[in-house]
Amino acid sequence: MQMKTEIKNGLTVCYVEGEIDINTSPGVKKSFDKLISSKTPRIVVNLSKVTYVDSSGLATLVEILKNMRSYGGRLRLSDMSSKIKSLFEITKLEKLFEIIADEKEAVSTFV
To answer: Class of 2-102 per CATH?
Structure first.
């Protein structure tokens, strides 16, 4: 799993690549902890290069969202493959997360 960040339109876009699973979840959490500790107000997570997410990966994403909401931050997920999007639908997490079809829309409509 790799992650890089860019600033676009005054918000942080995170590009995650690879799998988010039991082995990589701690690294994902650690990467986001840096952003959360600085109280980054708005984050878009581009998942276009994420190939697999397991239950620990979902739990990590929920924890990141919860931690951001604790200080009023907002998190959006974008560019999910149909396989990962169906995982969010099956687990009903699409009701918890702001899921936007693509990064451009996620960034341009973030208020």
So the answer is: alpha beta
